[in-house]
Amino acid sequence: MAKRSRRPNIAIRFLWKLTKAVLLLVISYLILCLLALTAYRYVTPPITGVQLQRMVEARVAGESYQRQYHPIASDAISQHLPRAVVAAEDGRFYEHRGVDWQAVHEARTEFQQGARMRGASTITQQLVKNLFFTTHRLHIRKAFEIPLAYGAEVILPKDRILFLYLTVVEWGPAVFGAEAASRHHFGISASELTRRQSAGLAACLPAPRTRTPQVMTRYTGIIERRMEQHGW
How many domains does the chain have? Predict the structure, then answer.
């Protein structure tokens, strides 16, 4: 009887130790991410989670991989591009503090009414995802992403968040950031992008590995109209 009564206690102690270890890992990773965000207030990320993901995927598939990633200064990006991206991806970017709960509610309501589920992630959330995670849709990622988005808004100014997003976001197969995207899609530098070209690049962001500005003319026009509504 004594032996049987000890087994549940051993199991409970093991689960408790395991839970504490997992919590310690989670908290440690969140702290490391916040420290990295603090550094990214002043420096450009040398590599991101999504870039590492694509590198591993290419290795596994036995494909060659040549990352196109050219970090540049914020004043080397055409003013049209950040405006186009805000208009396309996060119209209330300058109003929310990391998570746009209004957009989440709207997306959920539309889905309940039979519409296709659409994303409601903010630019801040997308930046965190690109920096520290992968593109895989996992619920556990949201558990990290939301507190880190709030943390990013405390640590980084809004314009720095937007600039970092433009610097690291995926814009094609192995193409990351505004400068690489401008060269890849238009053969020009990011500083030379026109309003139309910027809207075209923004139109690719929901599916950057399959979309190109040249075939996204309809959505490009929609983004340009949204820019007008913002006074841009």
Answer: 1
